[in-house]
Amino acid sequence: MDKIKQNPIVKKLGFNRIILFCILVLLYVAFSIAIPGFAGMARIMSILNYVYFLGFLALGVTFVIATGGIDFSIGPVMFCCALIGGYSLNTYGVPVIVSILLSILIGFLFGMFNGWLVAFVGVPPFIVSMASMNIAKGLGSVFTKTQSVSWPQLNDPDGRGWFRNLVKVGDVPTGLIIFAVFVIILFIVMNNTKPGRYILSLGSNKEAVRLSGVNVRKWQMLAYVICGTLVGIAAIFFVSAYTTVQPGLGDTYNNEAIASCVMGGTSMAGGLASIGGTVIGVFVISLLQEGIMALRMTKEVQMIITGLIVIIFVYADVSARRRKN
Q1: The three-state (H, E, C) secondary structure of the chain, written as one string
Q2: Tens digit of pLDDT for each residue in 213-246?
Q3: Contact, 71 vs 61, CB < 8 A?
Q4: Has residue 1 been placed in a domain?
Q5: Which range marks the domain in which residue 262 is found?
Q6: CB of 89 closer than 8 Å to CB of 152
Q7: Quick one: CA dihedral 10, 12, 15, 20, positive or negative?
Q8: I need a labelling partner for 95 at 20 to 30 A (CA). Which of 250, 260, 261, 321 fits?
Q9: pTM over 0.85
Q10: What is the pLDDT of residues 163-182, one digit of tens each?
């Protein structure tokens, strides 16, 4: 096993990511055999619809976890963005593009708020994320008067459903192309830029980074701002793939996004993150969600499986760090 791990190609790709990709392939094969028609285009499109919004959530929280922090508010914040943007569109006649920008802006502001509290005020990330989660739920409910919000369909007579082309144009998954572009950009930011290196360094040894003269507060806050902005974008992809958004929901997606990060090799202790691994983790979670639904199992079953997966991968991360030390 050690010889395999020391192979240059394996080291470059990452042993854990290779294993996770193999799990993804095996799951797809198993579901395709067990469920008639699972390998069809309809199922694939359904999986991709889930991948888009969950992917942006997971990519965002990857930056936060890389600093040694956590954000459990991303799901409710995504719903808050979609609720306020959609309600403004339907009730106040705001143009679609303005509603989209408003949704992203709300995510950005939540990121600013969380980052400021964590980096400059010194509130523990866990407390900040719990508070923001409740604020997002309350804000979305109050703004929409506890009503669910539906964004326009593609065939809207006023042509307001054009934004759904972000996900699919005919049989072309345009969302996959857009998502891939974001993945490449975020990979470069995380691994080949000064902000990315500082964000990872904060998770490794924040005090050492501070003593070297780096403004750790600025870079720590930036991680939360990136996360919040991506959560706003996730909201747009959610409403592009689906239709109705209900107030007070979104908690489940926190767990799934964080699980995707952990499975992909991002350490909960900080200092180690993998954009590519997170993407594979997102596909695994999305595939599980679709497969469990196709087998007519409940959402709770998926939650149990996701929880067990997180425990296994966190244990593997802790064990690897102990052996290294």
Answers
A1: CHHHHCCHHHHHHCHHHHHHHHHHHHHHHHHHHHCCCCCCHHHHHHHHHHHHHHHHHHHHHHHHHHCCCCCCCHHHHHHHHHHHHHHHHHHCCCCHHHHHHHHHHHHHHHHHHHHHHHHHHCCCHHHHHHHHHHHHHHHHHHHCCCCCEECCCCCCCCCHHHHHHHCCECCECHHHHHHHHHHHHHHHHHHHCHHHHHHHHHHHHHHHHHHCCCCHHHHHHHHHHHHHHHHHHHHHHHHHHCCEECCCCCHHHHHHHHHHHHHCCCCCCCCCCCHHHHHHHHHHHHHHHHHHHHCCCCHHHHHHHHHHHHHHHHHHHHHHHHHHC
A2: 888 999 999 999 999 999 999 999 999 999 899 9
A3: yes
A4: no
A5: 37-320
A6: yes
A7: negative
A8: 250
A9: yes
A10: 999 999 988 899 999 999 99
First to last CA, the chain: 19
Question: 67 near 199, Cβ under 8 Å?
Answer: yes
Tokens of 81: 């963005």
d(CA 224, CA 211): 22
The domain tally of the chain equals 1
What is the distance between the alpha carbons of residues 250 and 242, in angstroms, rounded to a whole number? 14
**Look-up: residue for tokens 């950009």?**
185
Instruction: Read off φ and ψ for residue 50, nearest 5 degrees.
Output: -75, -35
Domain membership of residue 288 (yes or no) is: yes
In a domain, 57, yes or no: yes
Summarised one tens digit per residue, pLDDT across range 30-83 is 999 998 888 888 899 999 999 999 999 999 999 999 999 999 999 999 999 999
Q: Which residues pair with 149 in a beta bridge?
A: 245
Tell me the CATH number at 162: 1.10.3470
103/11 Cα distance (integer angstroms): 40
Look at the block and give the residue holding tokens 């891939």. 180
Q: What is the residue whose two structure tokens read 């930036």?
A: 222
- Quote the tokens at residue 168: 């699919």
